[in-house]
Write a structure and sequence with these properties.
By secondary structure, the protein is mainly alpha-helical. 70% of the residues lie in helices and 0% in strands. Helix 2 packs across helix 3.
Length: 168
């Protein structure tokens, strides 16, 4: 399939993709972004497409996977939208800082111990704690999954050793 034929078929399928994107996102702007991102991936990975297969199904798969990955990424971020007039919720402080002083001291001590870990252990540990999957960490750090798992394991072990005194 030539590049022209590929692009023509993609263009002819735009309405179907727009409707499917809207059914996933339930938002017009997000649907447009999803379609655009899907087209970008399709054009970038055009060489991976097998012309003997169904282009529309291939594109739907790209779109669905893109939507799922974006959703996972957004749930890690956990946005707070405050629609009150005076931004009451954003200005009232976070619950973790409103605890008692002992909790704050322990939190600060824990943060300091984590920060003192060597980067080889600290970075994968923090990424995993932040919600990243082992595979995502491995890809980001260009390591094998086994190496990532062992570094996280040893980071936990080091933290438990250094924080024994905090056990109640």
């Amino acid at each position: 399939m030539t590049t022209f034929q590929f692009n023509t078929q993609l263009t002819n399928l735009r309405d179907s993709f727009q409707n499917y994107a809207y059914s996933l996102t339930q938002n017009g702007e997000d649907a447009n972004d999803l379609v655009q991102e899907t087209y970008l991936k399709a054009l970038t990975y055009r060489d991976k497409f097998d012309p003997s297969t169904n282009l529309k199904a291939w594109m739907y798969t790209i779109m669905k996977n893109t939507f799922i990955n974006n959703y996972r990424r957004e749930t890690r971020v956990r946005k707070i939208v405050d629609t009150t007039d005076n931004m009451y919720y954003l200005n009232m402080g976070s619950p973790s800082t409103m605890g008692n002083s002992q909790d704050i001291i322990q939190h600060n001590e824990l943060r300091e111990v984590v920060n003192n870990l060597e980067d080889d252990f600290r970075i994968p540990f923090e990424m995993h704690f932040g919600g990243y999957k082992y595979k995502e960490i491995a890809e980001e750090m260009n390591l094998s999954i086994g190496t990532v798992k062992s570094r996280i394991f040893f980071a936990r072990k080091k933290l438990m050793e250094k924080l024994k005194h905090l056990e109640n």
